[in-house]
């Protein structure tokens, strides 16, 4: 059985690195746990770091967090679906919102549960995912202020998640100006200006963040240490908090080119044979006990740099070990570095064991 391993010490060091960045600048932040797909043993590892705020896009995961530690502030990080309102008010202390009708439903449900439900009003700033249009924000904010059992915790934006728009200094200044506009209009103070996700960390390190932007939601940087502007690992952080291990179940010297009438494979891909192909060419191939049901090969990189990933079917991954200096045998484990999207697939699979180093 293939398994994914979390390295506790590397996670702790990444967390300490980020917490120092934020605390030294008086910035509030929460850990985005949606990558963990509700896995209890991994959620417990996050709680053990001393986290006080956790964000997720699945209510069932927030329910698990509340069960493990009721004192953690839980944040639902997408506009609520109508059918989820009761559970969101029950298990999320805060939710991101963009629709007056939905916030009205949250208000009614919060009254039924005798709770104050906090919301962040998300603003559209160019990435074209969720968000209230800027020209409608003041009217929107004023209407929501009137609703009982709703506390507007702040405003925020989401960038780089759909269209790839980056959270530049100009974008965050614009977000700060919305705060000033609303505070002047309604004579109030907005506690949070939530400036985005891991992609904004490089701006903070460069001290290019407007001071009014005082809250961030961090997931990928914690688990992968990645600078999303450059694609490189941030100095002082680990990129391999998670690793995948898969077992070799076959090793055979095989032709490099398939023979027979060719059609689409199970993934809908068609193999084409060049006119000048050398049908006598072979390679030493190994098959691993993991497949497309659990992962996507484009998000994996073997720790053995001389291994090449060939392709995958639903339950098996084929690799080329011809050039490796390691004498692999049946039953050996092959380890892989994982990208963020690759980890999402793996952690969402019930067929991949989750372990801790």
User: How many strands in all?
Assistant: 16
Please describe the biggest sheet, giving its number of strands, its sense, and whether it closes into a barrel: 8 strands, mixed
Strand content: 15-25%
The CATH superfamily of the largest domain is identified as Alanine racemase
CATH class of the largest domain: Alpha Beta
- State the low-pLDDT regions, or none: none
Radius of gyration: 24 Å
SSE succession: EHEHEHEHEHEHEHEHEHEEEEEEHE
What is the first-to-last residue Cα distance? 17 Å
Q: Provide the CATH architecture of the largest domain.
A: Alpha-Beta Barrel
Number of domains: 2
Query: What is the mean pLDDT?
Result: 95
In helices, the fraction of residues equals 25-40%
Protein architecture, described:
Keywords: Isomerase, Pyridoxal phosphate. This protein has 357 residues and is of the alpha/beta class. It has two domains: 217 residues, TIM Barrel, CATH 3.20.20; 115 residues, Lyase, Ornithine Decarboxylase, Chain A, domain 1 (Beta Barrel), CATH 2.40.37. The chain is 28% helix and 24% strand. It has ten helices and 16 strands. Strands 1, 10, 11, 12, 13, 14, 15 and 16 form an eight-stranded mixed beta sheet that branches. An eight-stranded parallel beta sheet has the order 8-7-6-5-4-3-2-9. A hairpin with a 4-residue loop joins strand 13 and strand 14. The radius of gyration is 24 Å and the shape is elongated. The model has no long low-confidence stretch (mean pLDDT 95).
